[in-house]
């Protein structure tokens, strides 16, 4: 864009800001409404260079451009680079339709029903290419079969294509309506996002209530961006959340699982947990735990969950591995104990059977909100089972237990229980810590010196089948 046009565009923007009665402000309930001219920041006035992009994202941008289409990097990657952070991924937006994109790339697959997207696959890296979205108000036009809203105002489909200006309005937060243009390397700022970045403010584009109704997951995203970027949620954007929290009940559990992973594996899990509780959103993710936490504010359960997230954050921030199985095992631990107790009392089940039944119930009920894939629920079950085997150490049992694939996670889980105040486990936990820190001979001595209760029962002859600890299938 020629320099004069840039200056005119900036002037226009300034005038618009001065005249507009609905500019974002921290003090009133105002919000950014319809967007018009973008603020265009030329290459000479911003610090983002192509060397900071993923080479694959650059390839995609150039191939689209050479194919005669417009192509921009958009959203989080531009925002993060402006903040001096390393982007998690690079998203591209173009005026080419998904089918046109597919024709340009052999390594392209089209995905999604709700949002049809092209994925360009480069080994482990995927560059997501979206076609610019348009408006979908015109219910009586042919557009309506491409866009569909539920009775709650939730967008079930959003495959109406449009211009870049319209696309910017469809974005969620002002800090995410930023576009890096591959033609002239300038940044297009449609919603005063650069200013919001400077003020470290997370604010929705448009009327917050409508935008949350269209997609209630934006409530979770508001929290995630505020903690991730060390920003505050603007009052107008924060205000409707508590009241609209129950809209999360309409979100498919598989999508909520994906969002939970983002919230809990971001390195800011503890802050996210605390904000989710404050805004009344947590109960739509983990209702049973939420009730238990409400019943005992500041209690052992809260300490346990908080400490689990503190530890998770520390591991992530030190580039250590974290398994979601551990997180979900911890989030459902107290609901599991409660249900086991109930089943033992109500149905007079022995402990082992009550526990197996409670695991099935707690996991299947929780899957109504957050659909945790089986590979993680199996891991959670193993961690739970091992908690009940730690005290059986006689003979070869301690050794065999320590060789189980989930043993280390289960041991960390017990440490966490002790750290958060389960004093009755301290002695057992110390025993295992010593056991793991000694050599084989030392371990044998430790097992020998255990009292008689820990000797394994001798198997009766006559071949009575041993009970296995295998859980009932989900
Ligand atoms: P990060 O990748 O760090 O989580 P991001 O902003 O890139 O942050 P993505 O989920 O990767 O988030 O989405 C990319 C962009 O798509 C966003 O920046 C935003 O412009 C747009 N977007 C994503 N989800 C929504 C949504 N629910 N409503 C409106 N726009 C959205
Ligand atoms: Mg992203």
Written overview of the protein:
There is one protein chain. The radius of gyration is 27 Å and the shape is elongated. β5 and β6 (about 125-130) form a beta hairpin. Strands 1-10-9-2-3-6-5-4 form an eight-stranded mixed beta sheet. α8 (about 215-230) packs parallel to α11, α15 (about 325-330) crosses α18 (about 375-385) and α16 (about 335-345) crosses α17 (about 350-365). It is of the alpha+beta class. The chain has 22 helices and twelve strands. The longest helix is centred in the middle third of the chain and has 18 residues, at about 300-315. The chain has two domains: about 20-215, Beta Polymerase, domain 2 (2-Layer Sandwich); about 275-450, cca-adding enzyme, domain 2 (Orthogonal Bundle). Magnesium ion binds next to loops. The site of magnesium ion has 5 residues, from loops.
